[in-house]
Amino acid sequence: MVPERLELTVEELASRVGTTVRNVRAYQDKGLLPPPERRGRHAIYSDEHLFRLRLVHQLLARGYTLASIGEVIAAWEQGQDLAALIGLESAIASPWSSEVPAHLTLAQVVERFGVTAPRALSKAIGLGFLEPEGDGFRAPSPRLLHAGEELVRAGVPLEALLDEAGALRADAERIARGFVELVATHVFDAAGDGGTLPPADEVPRLAGIVRRLRPLAVMVVEAELARALERAAHEALDARLAMVLDHIEGRDPDE
């Protein structure tokens, strides 16, 4: 299925990259961005504009001047149209989750989690599980919210759960960085000479690898987490289960 072509206003384009409309127009004047499509009085920007604008910002962050950025883009385009590189950028930058964020009122948060202490709410916001939005909150991952709600309902104190979630977040980010670094070092760096842009003929292959990385990464983490949970459950719960069985049978657990 071919993804729909983006159609953005200049304000939306600038917002997506974290820059200003003035900068977008300055880059366009210098030839770093192609002219937008005109529909009457409206200027429409596409995927190519978004890609180029992100590329300009990445190169500026690396110390390139606007003039040298123009030379880099022109040199790369001589080898291949930017469409393939846009596909690579899309594979990297598009969301890695298909979850649709949910919106909750403060009353709903209190009802679902029993949140009455400002400290717990602040911690949930700090971890990114809730984001203030309008008169309530945006929940980027309803699945995480549902899992947390079930654990609280089972008797896990909310603040203890948030503390563990913070540690989990740090572990997940470390695992993700390690997995991606493997691909970056042994695939991307090996594909070229260490330059800013990969060789034109390597780009489609690299985009395919990035797309395959997503389910592979989830598969590896799920398998390892299942193994670790099985071991942890045995270590933590076997003794407690034995005590329950002894109590049922009327035996002294110290015998």
Can you offer a commentary on this structure?
The chain is extended and about 85 Å long. The protein has a 3-stranded antiparallel beta sheet. The protein has 255 residues and is mainly alpha-helical. The chain is built from 10 helices and 5 strands; from the N terminus they run H-H-E-E-H-H-H-E-H-H-E-E-H-H-H. The chain has 2 domains: 10-79, Multidrug-efflux Transporter Regulator, Chain: A, Domain 2, CATH 1.10.1660; 102-249, no CATH class. It starts with 9 loop residues before the first helix and ends in a 6-residue tail after the last helix. Helix 1 (10-17) packs parallel to helix 3 (47-61) and helix 5 (82-93) packs parallel to helix 10 (203-249).
Strands of the biggest beta sheet: in what spatial order?
Answer: 3-5-4
Q: How many domain modules?
A: 2
Could you say which structural class the secondary elements and strand pairing correspond to? mainly alpha
Per the principal axes of the C-alpha atoms, what is the gross shape? extended
User: What is the share of helical residues?
Assistant: 55-70%
Tally of helical runs: 10
Largest sheet: 3 strands, antiparallel
Radius of gyration, CA atoms, in whole angstroms: 25 Å
> What is the average of the pLDDT values?
82
Q: Number of DSSP strands?
A: 5
Distance N to C terminus: 66 Å
- Detail the poorly predicted runs: none
Provide the β-strand percentage band. Answer: 5-15%
Q: Which H/E pattern describes the elements? A: HHEEHHHEHHEEHHH
